[in-house]
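Whiteboard transcription, Tuesday session. T.W. wrote the structure tokens on the left side:
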């Protein structure tokens, strides 16, 4: 299904959808805890549903309700069927670290995009820990045969923070201590901090060391009831819509949340958007005169597509950098973003780890290819709000990965969007 977007003015209130990252972690940790946990207000999207199906295949009891999931965990076993993680990198990576702790073999696969994404650093790390690994060139499909026997591992930190989260989350299952040595600087550190905070909610501690992390031995996951907060990654599209095309108040956000993507609010202020924050965590974004600047996205790479859209409307030059690992996401997000913005008339140049945009640019409607990437789809839709003519986006449904109600909620704010 295609989405057609026209120039629009927006005004209204929107609740940020539940956090995809928090939902993944909540489902997995509840499955690892011995007892019953309730996950309230989770995101029911394609990626998180893949995680929920997977923990059920690994032996967790799962009961779905309208706005919560009850999970009975602690008695996991290797899956008798191949676990299909669809398009979810978080699912396949963190669950591989979990399955590697179990006595036996578990096999994983995914769609064509997921099977092209890098897994080798994690699989090599699991092999270093004594796990038998079978893969095709370090990508899915692959199998892991546990359990883990080692207590120290070395792994790169600049490919995916999900590799580190996978090792940390799986560690307590062995009852042994684990030291993770990072051989390169860690990118997307807030996502690992999010993992550690979630583990602590379930009674497991992690120590940050000079070159990585240490998980003490003899720890058990305890059941815990968790409420999933709003997603700053998805909220960024709402903030940008307000900053570019009107006045939008975003609710359901916790300012104490460790999500790295909340830096987008500070970025909008730095660029010149009108930003107001309430004591409850609500954030209002109002259209303003934007000015270019340098933006380091090393800790918040998912913001790149929408930050690039903002950059097209800034006076002067904006340089986005620090996000080389974006080339290994659902699409090569640096190239995908540059392609659709250039087709709309933007002065944008790719770099190895980001892009340079000279603005302000007069955007015009174009035919946009999303490459099945939800963040490209939503960024292109926001760009279409300030473009002349109609922007036709080839895959409106891929936003279901992280923000299933994106189109409906944008329409409620006044966006001229229609599905065809």
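and on the right, the sequence the group agreed on:
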């Amino acid at each position: 299904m295609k989405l057609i977007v026209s120039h629009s003015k927006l005004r209204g209130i929107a609740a940020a959808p539940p956090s995809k990252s928090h939902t993944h972690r909540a489902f997995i940790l509840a499955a690892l805890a011995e007892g019953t946990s309730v996950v309230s207000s989770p995101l029911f999207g394609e990626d998180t549903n893949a995680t929920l199906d997977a923990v059920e295949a690994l032996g967790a009891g799962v009961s779905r309700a309208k706005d919560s999931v009850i999970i009975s965990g602690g008695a996991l076993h290797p899956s008798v069927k191949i676990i299909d993680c669809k398009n979810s990198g978080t699912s396949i990576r963190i669950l591989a670290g979990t399955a590697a702790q179990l006595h036996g073999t578990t096999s994983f696969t995914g769609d064509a995009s997921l099977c092209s994404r890098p897994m080798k650093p994690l699989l090599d790390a699991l092999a270093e820990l004594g796990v038998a690994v079978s893969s095709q060139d370090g990508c899915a499909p692959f199998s892991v045969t546990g359990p883990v026997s080692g207590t120290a591992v070395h792994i790169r930190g600049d490919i995916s923070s999900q590799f580190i989260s996978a090792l940390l989350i799986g560690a307590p299952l062995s009852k042994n201590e684990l030291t993770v040595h990072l051989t390169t600087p860690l990118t997307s550190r807030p996502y690992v901090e999010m993992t550690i905070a979630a583990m602590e909610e379930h009674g497991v501690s992690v120590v940050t060391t000079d070159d990585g992390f240490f998980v003490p031995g003899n720890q058990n996951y305890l059941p815990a009831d968790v409420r999933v907060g709003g997603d700053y990654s998805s909220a960024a599209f709402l903030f940008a819509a307000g900053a570019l095309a009107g006045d939008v108040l975003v609710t359901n956000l916790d300012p104490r949340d460790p999500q790295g993507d909340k830096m987008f609010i500070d970025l909008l202020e730095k660029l010149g958007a009108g930003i107001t924050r309430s004591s409850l965590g609500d954030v209002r974004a109002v259209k303003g005169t934007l000015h270019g600047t340098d933006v380091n996205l090393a800790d918040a790479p998912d913001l790149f597509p929408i930050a690039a859209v903002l950059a097209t409307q800034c006076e002067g030059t904006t340089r986005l950098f620090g996000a080389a690992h974006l080339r290994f996401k659902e699409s090569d997000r640096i190239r995908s973003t540059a392609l659709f913005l250039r087709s709309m008339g933007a002065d944008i140049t790719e770099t190895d780890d980001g892009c340079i945009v000279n603005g302000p640019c007069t955007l015009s409607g174009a035919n946009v290819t999303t490459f099945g990437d939800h963040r490209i789809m939503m960024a292109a839709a926001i760009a279409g709000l300030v473009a002349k003519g109609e922007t036709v986006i080839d895959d409106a449904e891929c936003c279901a990965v992280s923000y299933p109600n994106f189109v409906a909620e944008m329409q409620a704010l006044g966006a001229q969007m229609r599905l065809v």
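Someone added at the bottom: The chain has two domains: 3-17+229-419, 20-222.
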